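Narrative of activities, Objective 1.

The group set out to show that a structural description can be obtained from nothing but a protein's sequence at a throughput compatible with the screening campaign. Below is one input-output pair from the validation batch, recorded exactly as produced.
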Amino acid sequence: MDDAQRIGSRVADSEPRFIGYPAADPDAPNVLMIVLDDVGFAQLGCFGAGFDTPHVDRLAAAGLRYNRFHVTSVCSSTRAALLTGRNHHAVGMGVTEEAALGFPGYHGRIPRSAASLARVLKDSGYNTMAVGKWHLTPKTEYSAAGPFERWPLGMGFERYYGFLGAETNQWAPELVRDNTHIEPPRTPEEGYHLTEDLVDQAIRMIQDQQQAASRKPFFCYLATGAAHAPHQVPAEWIERYAGQFDDGWDAWRQRAYDRQVAEGIIPAGTELTERPPWVPDWDTLSTEERRLFARYMEVFAAFMTHTDHHLGRLFDFLEQQGVADDTLVMVLSDNGASAEGGPTGTLNEAAGWLGLNEEIDTALEQIDDIGGHRANNHYPYGWAWAGNAPLRLWKRYAWLGGVRTPLVVRWGDRLAGRGDVRPQFCHAVDVYATVLDAAGIAPPETVDGVTQQPVDGRSLLPSFRDAAAAEHRDLQYFELMGSRGIYHDGWKAVTDHVPNQFGERDRLVGSFDFDTDRWSLFHLAGDFSESRDVADQHPDVVRRLEELWWSEAGRNNVLPLFEFPASMAHMHPGEFPVPASAIYRPGGGPVQESQLPAVMGGFVLAAEIEVPAGGAEGVLAALGDRHGGWAFYLLDGRPTAVFALLDGAIRVAADDAVPPGRHRVELRYEPGREPRAVLAVDGVGVAEAPLPGMLFFPNLSTAGAGLLVGRDRGIAVSDDYRPPYAFTGTLDRVELRSGRPGAGPEQSTELRAALSGD
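Output recorded for this entry:
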C-alpha cells in the first residue's frame, strides 16, 4: 500500500501527487478495422471479382491476403466475435439482434465478462471511435431511452456515428451520433449517400484525434452499410457496368475462378464446385429475365466500386497524415454473399423476406429504378452463388460459402512478403487477439471488477512475419440457425440442414429436421473448396468430428439448437413492455418502432390540430418510407393516409378539407373479416378503404426506423408529398392507441422477418 499523502494547511506543508493516465506502448500501432457487409469470397478485385476495387486491391498489394479466414455466416454474430474475441454463442449472439431469444447463447446481450476490444484498448491508452453499422444492440433498446449499455459508447468506444440496425437506406439512413438519434446532413435530392458520409466522419474523427494528441494511438472501427441490401448507388457509377454481366452468373463465376487460380488466391488444382440444381442455368432463362438479372448485378458491382472509391479517400488521408505505415489496417467481410433477394431478385428486399417477390414483368417496368431512390433492391441468388466462387452456398450456412470471406491486412514494414496470400486457417475471434498482440496488450483478467471469460481467439502475428508460420487454430465449430459445421486438423464436417427461412426449403436440397441431418466430410488440406464429400470413406472421422461438435456446442452455449417456428415462443423481451397507448408531440426525434403501441390488432391515431383561416397541410405522423410504412397527413387540407405495404400501397383520402378551427382528426386501422382503414374528423367518418393483409413492416425494426410527428424526412411514404412536408397549422399532439395491446403478427411472419434482419 502506498504511504498516505501528506496534506497540510499550507501548500508548503503538502505533498503533491498526480493521477496517472493509461499509456499505450510507444510502438503500439493505430488500428483501422473495416468491416464490409455481405461481401462474398470472390467479390473484391484482389480476390478475383473482375469489377473495380482498386483501392482495396492496392492495400492488398502492400499487405497480405488471407484465403482461409472464417466468420460466423451472419452479421451480428461475426461482429460480436470480432470485438470480443469469443465465439458468438459464448457471448449470447447466436442469432441476429432481431431474433434474440431467452437462452444463454441467444439473448443478444454481450456480457460484461467479455469486454470489447474497444474497451480494452481505451483502458490501455488508445482513443476509440466507431463509424457505421453497429447491430450489437437489441432492437428493443434502440430508443432515446436506451438502455445505452450496449450502444457503442457503452461498450468502450468514445465516439460513434452510424446506424444501430441490421441495414438502412443508403439515401436516407436512420443515423445516431454518440447516444443521440440525428438527421442526415443532406437529403437524397441533395445527393446524400451513406458511404460517403461514413468515410467523411471517419476522416474527421481521426483528424481531430491526431491534431489533438498525435502521440496517442487510435482504434477506428468502420463498418459500411455496403454491400448489404438495399444495393443503392448513384446512377453514374452504375452506367460504367452496363452490359458487363449479360453473359450471366455461370460465366462470371468461371472467370472469377480463373482469376483466383492465376493470381494464387486459391491453390492450383482447386475444384470449382458445380452449380446446384436450385440455381438455374443462365442459358435457360428468357431474354427479359437475363436483362433484369444482369441489371441487378450491374448495380451491385457499382455499389462495390463506389464503396472502394470512398475507402480510398480514407487510405489517402492516412498517407497525407503520415500515419499509414504505423496503422494496422484490416479489411474483411462479416459473411458470405447474400441470397436474400430470392431466385429472381427483388425491388423491395423486406418484401422478399416474406416471399412477396414481384413478378418479372412488374420488375422490368421499374428496371431503371433499381439502385436509385425508388427501389430497395437485392439481386437474385444466382449472383450470391457466383460471388462466393469457388465455394458452396452462401450467407447463413456453415458451408464455406457462408463462413469464408476475404481478409486483407496492411501494416507497413511489419509484414513479410507484401502482396502474398497467407493460407493459415483463421477465424473472426482471432482478430481481437491479433490487435492486442500488435499493441503489446495482454487480455485483462478483470474489467470493472468482473472476471473475464476465456478468450477463444489466438494471434495471427506469427503469420504476419512468416509465411510458413504454423497454423494456430486446429479446431473451430460453426452454427447458425441450425446449419452446423466443425473444422479440426485439416478436416471439416458440415450438415445438410436447410433452415426454414426465405422459402429455401421449397428449392434447396437437404434435410429439414435435425434428426435426419447428414454430415458431409471434406479434407480441406487437399480440397480448398469443400468439393469432394468423403464421408462414406471415413465414417470414423465423421463420428469423431460430430462428437467434437457436440462438445464445442456444450462449451459455447449453442444449445438448444435454433428451430423455426418453435423458437418464436421464446423471444427475449425488452426493458419494458410496449405501452397500450402513448401521446407524442412535434419537435422531438423519431420514436423507435419497437417502443410504439402494438398496431397488429388495430389502432387509432388521433391528432389534435388547429387549422388557420387559410387552411393547413402537412404530415401529422409518419413511420417508414415507400418501401414499408405509413403516413397520415393533410393534402390540400384533406385528411389522407397511405399504407406502403410490402406488396403494394393502399391510399385513403377524404373529399373535403378540414375547416378552420380546432379539430380531432383520426386514422383508424380496423382488422377483422373485412379489415379497413378509416379516416374521421371530430368523430365522424369521412373516408375508408379496404386494408387487406397484415399491417406489419419488418424493415422498420431491422433499420431502426422511428415515428416522426408533424413532419417526415428522407424517402416519403407516398408520392403525394416531399419531406419534410411539415404541418402548417398547429399540431398539439397525436395519440396512438392500440386496438389490442400486445398483439403481434402471426408467429411465422414475425420470425421470418426477424431472421432476415442480418
